[in-house]
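Subject: Interface between my chains keeps coming out wrong

I've been trying for a while to get a sensible model of this assembly. When I model each chain on its own everything looks fine, but I need the whole thing in one frame so I can look at the contacts. Pasting all components below, labels as-is. Any help appreciated, I'm running out of ideas.
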Amino acid sequence: MTYRDAGVDLDAADRLVERIRPAVTSTWGRLVVGGFGGFAAGIKLPPGYADPVLMMTTDGVGTKAEVARRAGMIEGLGYDLVAMCVDDLAAVGARPLALTDYLAVGQLDPDRLEPLVRSIAAACSEAGVALLGGETAEHPGVMEPDEFDLAAAALGVVDAGEEVTGEGIGAGDAVIGVASPNLRSNGFSLVRTAVVDRLGLDAELPGTGRTVAEAVLAPSVIYAPAVLEALLRIPIAGLAHITGGGIAGNLVRVLPEGVMAAIDTATWTPPAVFDAVAEVGGISHDEMFRTFNMGIGFVTVTARRHAERVIASFGASGHEAWQIGEIELGPRSVRLV
Amino acid sequence: MTYRDAGVDLDAADRLVERIRPAVTSTWGRLVVGGFGGFAAGIKLPPGYADPVLMMTTDGVGTKAEVARRAGMIEGLGYDLVAMCVDDLAAVGARPLALTDYLAVGQLDPDRLEPLVRSIAAACSEAGVALLGGETAEHPGVMEPDEFDLAAAALGVVDAGEEVTGEGIGAGDAVIGVASPNLRSNGFSLVRTAVVDRLGLDAELPGTGRTVAEAVLAPSVIYAPAVLEALLRIPIAGLAHITGGGIAGNLVRVLPEGVMAAIDTATWTPPAVFDAVAEVGGISHDEMFRTFNMGIGFVTVTARRHAERVIASFGASGHEAWQIGEIELGPRSVRLV
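Reply #2:
Try treating it as a single job with all components included. I did that and got this:
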């Protein structure tokens, strides 16, 4: 009996590694040290950090991978993966430097997986991070042959004292939302059960002018470069990446004691995909706001006098942003009205 | 319909986070910056690095998780996970600093998962790394309720120019093996098919005096602290972590052109678990050496005059080590005799 008989093909793994080499190394700027294919790869710190703090975060794309697999549309998942990780770094004010990806598959088919790794590399380039390494693990008999799971970890840097913690948030501050045109990579177990299992993937998702697959699988926007650009120029008191849940659950994580955020949901109209998911799935307004980003993928909190500059800065980076609420005295909480 | 109806319980996730807080933060030395529960956590570089290169690596425990799940013995997996990652860093001469874990589960049951995260934290403490963050992703309908997958990424540091690349390996150098008493976390799809599916988990694994579950699930040794200790004192030309395959496939990764490693397999007797796996599974000698570590979990290459000091250094760190071969002129390859 051989390892290959048991479903693990180390030669296929080697072939995949060779095929993704150009895409992976294309993300390597001049700070990267060492070669491709070693036990670990390295990166130097960019200049200008007096007292660097290294920040790490990790996340996956969740069961968006399962919907993408069923639809045969996996090319956007790299953007979801990179966005989930680097936007967590941006939320603490850290500049993302590098990323490693972890891909678990039932069967390692280089033809099928190469486009996935290419999309991760493309998203890394857009986010300005080096794809320093990765692991592709074959799990025969545990996962279906074409099933896969996708996660990553990212490394970033911020100067000590420059971390954005939310500590300085005070009453009167403006809460600014940055637009997300789609679901990003959260809530997909609900999307799957409530929408995909009911309508299928090829039906039109009502009101969106797109199929269910197209509407729900639209890739995540990557905010990190725009957030860092704003941080360079404008004092910002708090940042929240709307991830793993809704606006309230994420924004409250950075509020200090004694203040609440009052969010006026009338200041925007969520993209049509959210209405469609709510209607097809029979999901309440409150549950929608608890589970999904509802069109706001990132939140910044800043003194009111800086609000217009923050909004303009995101606009110049290509992201629509607007004031969605303000900070008031009160018990630490987020109130959606 | 709610997110919870779809199988995702954000409250259970919050409960797990609160329950693992003490174990996670117990790994945080004084270099860690920031609090628990934010979007990312940070660590400062230890002092003494003139031109630091940050190294990242990622790995998982593979389908050892599936065998551990079936056996109800998951407490050792943290050591496997941490060893797989930090020993890759040690193989390039980097000091491991921090780790993030990624846990995908069918159903997030805090009672079941807390021991797993505790074992990761305990292994991080042994390896001297801070468990900076983690993600627990619930994948209902995609994974069975009690199924899980476990991966991690690790961050390390080495001074530029001090990376161990194997470049300096030359004819006449000694190849030193460091003992692994067990399978570590590789080859488990083969172990599962060839042994577990035939004998079950509770039968005695012939010649080991232990059940199949006990023998195959024994946790990985963590080599990184011992490797770094040796590197501090002794010039070492090359290092290889025996992972994701056998001695030859890993050692060849660090050999320069023009030299071959001749390994004399008569210099040691593999632990009984390897013989038992080969015999029960009907696996050839060559396939065993291609797939498993065969009792050598880490390899160092050094000038012959330093060999005894390297062996003594590992011994002082609690790891048996001995010369298993030498470097000869020849086509870049590893020859097992």
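Reply #3:
Confirming on my end. The longest strand of chain B covers residues 148-159.
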